[in-house]
Amino acid sequence: MTVLQDISTFEDIKLLVNTFYDKVQKDDFIGPIFNEKIGHRWPEHLEKMYRFWQTVLLEVHSYSGSPFPPHKHLPIDKEHFDRWMQLFIETNDTLFQGPIADEAKLRAKNMAEMFNYKINYFRDQGQKGDLLNLK
Fold first, then answer.
1. What domain range includes position 51?
2. What is the pLDDT of residues 114-132, one digit of tens each?
């Protein structure tokens, strides 16, 4: 039986991100949404994700920015976030074990819940604005 190590290096972050997004790109449910939005810019997206997770998990402050705005108008809902989480947890648990790997899952869960909430909030605000403009 192979003993899994915890996430501890930038190379670990790259392995997690690359393996996870490879699954995302091939997934029948969320893959088309990601592939349409990102298009040929996958290398840039992956680089950004390396920096994001390195900052979040290893406290190496290499990411700056706002992760939510690019997701604001995506045609996604809770089921998409559930699938994203399923793939993330599956990938993480296959590759790593330990406190930082557990932290990665918690952070991903919190981020998915917050993004889902904010997307729905902006949709609701847009619909209210549309109704106000009809009057």
1. 10-134
2. 988 988 887 777 655 544 4
